UniProtKB/TrEMBL annotation:
It is found in: Cytoplasmic vesicle membrane; Endomembrane system; Golgi apparatus. GO terms for biological process: intracellular protein transport; vesicle-mediated transport. Residues 526-645 form the GAE domain. Its main location: membrane. One of its GO terms (cellular component) is AP-1 adaptor complex. It holds the Pfam family Adaptin_N. Keywords: Cytoplasmic vesicle, Golgi apparatus, Membrane, Protein transport, Transport. It comes from the Eukaryota. Belongs to the adaptor complexes large subunit family. It comes from Oncorhynchus mykiss (Rainbow trout). This is AP-1 complex subunit gamma.
Length: 649
């Protein structure tokens, strides 16, 4: 490749390299040619060679030998060379390089150049890689350019001043007067640079912050002009007028209104206007709304604060669907709004808090929601309990935590839960086999403490009826064991049956639990028979029917009572046996099963005979499928048998 090839040709050759080694070879040859030409006198190709070297640098190859060439090109009177020199300085130099000090004088001269484009190059370079020493030397020049009449220069000077303030914070006072005057500009670029500069000044110096609080009315007027302005193709982004400037102004207003009620009050109406007039269906609108919400949450204001909080919650509710993590960062502020006195704000905060629940924060956020449930208004309890149940079902870290959470809700607001809560909790307890002892002990304590919460009493009665034997043993590893006598359990159930607070459905649960205990206790069967017989003449038809049927079990069908009350039975409704790839000589015949109910706890069995005719005595594989119902749930299990002993044939 010729040393004098153009940049486009060099790029084409490098991209055409088939291997990494071939690419390195091309670049090494070109870098050697560039070094050789740098050593020669000015031949008009310096800027082209530096441009090629910058491309090599972008590919990740060393290009430090071009640093001094950047210094020479910056000092060149020709604009094309100066432009490439400044670009090279921004890419190859930083404040740690000694060569960066050599361009300070050139930058100072170019800041006073008659061409705005040369001034722009110097401003960009200083704002990009200016060291603290360069910033101190050139700060007066930047302050002078902030007062220039050219908007193109002023917007770049403002951003350059931001870099200087970050490098040398004590120079911020130098730019304070000029930055305040920039707010009267109409050019959006100048306004954007001014707002960024003022934001930086306010964050660095509390005294400057107090000075710029007087500029809040001007910022409010600028923001209102953006919100209410008509369509402007120059600044419009997805229907939003200059959302970048709006976001910057809102961020500055948040800083100025923090811990200052006067400044915050001046912003209230504006924030309400922005929140109601901004379309959040596009990304630009969502960005403005998000910044509005952050401002509302951070300012200090009494008048109109509740309205603003409500609007903020509504806006965040829209944003959380598209950017969950962004809203998640402000979870603490949202949870604090649950303590607000206004019911509408509480409702919005509740909806947003429920939307923020995830597998990561389920424990911490659920504590806040349960605390809110204990003091929330009656009209919000049903919605709160429903949301907590849904979140617990989706993200429960363990079955014990899930059960504890539901029991806590039932204890706190059991009268406001949905009708399906009781069967859902019963199903959860049934599947948590290792927690039966823990659950029955906990529910027994809850039953003794309070029988006014009907849903909790119903679950407790069911659990005592099913797992009363675990309660009577007094052994539980999960919780502190309680020594419970048979009479204590029957006293508790009888209290439920006789209480005026118990609904007919609750009495039905208690009566059934009492009947089931007749197979789990040994010394109080006569008392159970007496309790059941009393309700044989109850005015409630459903309860009377149950009592009559249970009395019949005690008398005429006493031999069936253990099977009917010993926990959940399994009803067999289909058995299917098949052979895997059977030969034609094999014949299979199934006899009818001996029954269709299998009692729980191994108290009975169902047998079914399968006749298999295998005259050729070939090896077979048998697949057996059993379908049954347990507590109205359809279950199915399949097993394959492929190890029949040889004598079986």
């Amino acid at each position: 490749m010729s040393p004098s090839v153009r940049l486009q040709e060099m790029i084409r050759v490098i991209r055409g390299a088939r291997t990494q080694g071939e690419e390195r070879g091309v670049i090494q040859r070109e870098c050697a040619a560039i070094r050789a030409q740098f050593r020669q006198a000015d031949n008009g190709t310096r800027s082209h060679n530096l441009a090629k070297l910058l491309y090599v640098h972008m590919l990740g190859y060393p290009a430090h030998f071009g640093q001094m060439e950047c210094v020479r090109l910056i000092a060149s009177p020709r604009y094309n060379e100066k432009r490439v020199g400044y670009l090279g300085a921004m890419m190859l130099l930083d404040e740690k390089q000694d060569a960066s000090l050599l361009i300070t004088n050139s930058i100072k001269n170019d800041l006073s150049h008659s061409s705005q484009y040369v001034q722009s190059l110097a401003l960009c370079t200083l704002g990009c890689m200016g060291s603290a020493e360069m910033c101190r030397d050139l700060a007066p020049e930047i302050d002078r350019l902030l007062r220039a009449s050219n908007s193109y220069i002023k917007k770049k000077a403002a951003l350059c001043a931001v870099h200087i303030v970050r490098k040398v914070p004590e120079l911020g006072e130098l730019f304070t007067p000029a930055s305040r005057s920039l707010l009267s500009e109409k050019n959006h670029g100048v306004l954007h640079g001014a707002v960024v500069l003022i934001t930086e000044l306010c964050e660095r110096n509390p005294e400057t912050l107090e000075q710029f609080r007087k500029a809040v009315p001007e910022l409010v007027q600028i923001m209102k002009g953006l919100v209410m302005s008509g369509y402007s193709p120059e600044h419009n982004v997805a229907g939003i007028s200059d959302p970048f400037l709006q976001v910057r102004i809102l961020r500055l207003l948040r800083i100025l209104g923090r811990n200052n009620e006067t400044a915050s009050d001046a912003v209230n109406d504006l924030l309400a206007q922005v929140a109601t007039n901004t379309d959040s269906s596009k990304t630009a609108g969502s960005a403005v709304l998000y910044e509005t919400v952050l401002t509302v949450m951070d300012i200090k204001s009494e008048s109109g604060l509740r309205v603003m909080e409500y609007i903020s919650m509504t806006s965040l509710q829209k944003i959380v669907q598209t950017d969950h993590n962004a809203v998640q960062r402000h979870r603490g502020t949202i949870v604090d709004c649950l303590k607000d006195q206004d019911a509408s704000v509480k409702r919005r905060a509740l909806e947003l808090s429920l939307a923020l629940v995830s597998a990561v924060n389920i424990r911490s956020l659920m504590k806040e929601l349960l605390l809110f449930l204990s003091s929330c208004p009656p009209e919000l309890r049903a919605h709160t309990t429903s949301g907590i149940f849904n979140a617990a079902e989706r993200y429960a870290p363990s079955q014990r935590w899930h059960i504890d959470t539901i029991l806590h809700v039932l204890t706190t607001a059991g009268g406001d839960v949905r009708d399906e809560t009781v069967p859902n909790l019963i199903q959860l307890i049934t599947t948590a086999t290792e927690l039966h002892c823990y659950t029955v002990h906990k529910l027994y304590r809850a039953l003794i403490a309070d029988i006014s919460v009907q849903s909790l009493v119903q679950v407790a009665c069911w659990c005592i009826g099913e797992y009363g034997d675990l309660l009577l043993r007094g052994e539980c590893e999960e919780t502190e064991p309680v020594q419970v006598a048979e009479d204590d359990v029957l006293d508790a159930l009888e209290t439920v049956l006789q209480s005026h607070m118990s609904s007919p459905a609750t009495r039905g649960f208690a009566l059934t639990a009492t009947m089931k205990l007749s197979t789990r206790i040994t010394h109080n069967v006569d008392r159970i028979r007496s309790i059941v017989s009393i309700y044989g003449s109850c005015i409630d038809v459903e309860l009377q029917q149950r009592a009559v049927e249970y009395n019949a079990l005690f008398k005429k069908y006493d031999h069936m009572r253990p099977g009917k009350t010993q926990g959940p039975n399994y009803r067999l409704f289909m058995t299917f046996v098949s052979l895997s790839h059977p030969p034609q000589s094999v014949q299979l015949q199934m006899k009818a099963p001996s029954g269709d109910v299998i009692p729980a706890h191994g108290l009975g069995q169902v047998t079914q005979t399968v006749l298999l005719n295998n005259p050729n005595k070939v090896s077979l594989k048998m697949r057996v499928r059993v379908c049954y119902t347990s507590q109205d749930f359809v279950c199915q299990d399949t097993v394959q048998i492929d190890s029949f002993p040889s004598p079986a044939w």
